Amino acid sequence: STAYRYVKELCDSGLLISIGKGAHVLGPRFIECDRLIRNTDPLLIAAQKVMPGLHQEFGEGLLLLSSLYGDKVLCIYQEPLITDFSVSYTRGRPMPLFYGATAKIILANLPERKLVKLFLNHRLAIAKAGIGDEWDDFKKHLADMRRAGVCISKGEVDPGATGIGTAIFADDKSVIGSLTHVVMDGDKDIDSSIPDRLNEGCDRISTEISSILQAH
Fold it and tell me: What is the phi/psi pair of residue 48, to 5°?
């Protein structure tokens, strides 16, 4: 009876909807919430002003916008939206924090207290990802990445895919997301100007976010 009551409450709230024969699926409230996110998230709104032009400059591949979600990274937008280019990082799919340029550039810029907690809770996963068997190794690996201002990974998430990730920061210099250029030719030499142009794109996104917040 408790389960039936919970299901009824979820249906009444729009979080579930009955499709007959006792089966239920996620309800329209999630679609409503997705629209609210698209219309109100400053990071998403700001990035959508910058990413199309940046993708035209590169002329190939995908641009992915991601943010931190607990101990995972969540892709929230890609440019272009329609493409034959298939990657694991698609909108709404949580991905591990220790693999790929998209995630690791965010990881590298987290505060040390957060990194300590992550290392204690995920030590085996961190070691398996090759970013540090011990705390000092893990810390140095991330510090080197942070100084470089970019993370480049090849085939860590999708075979043959190369990701070039840069971090997006808030006004207080805390990391709030990443912008990643992904190409599907793992053996191709990377244009040395791409990291700089990605970081410039991140700066423009941060500036747009500040303008949006000040307007409200």
Answer: -70, -15
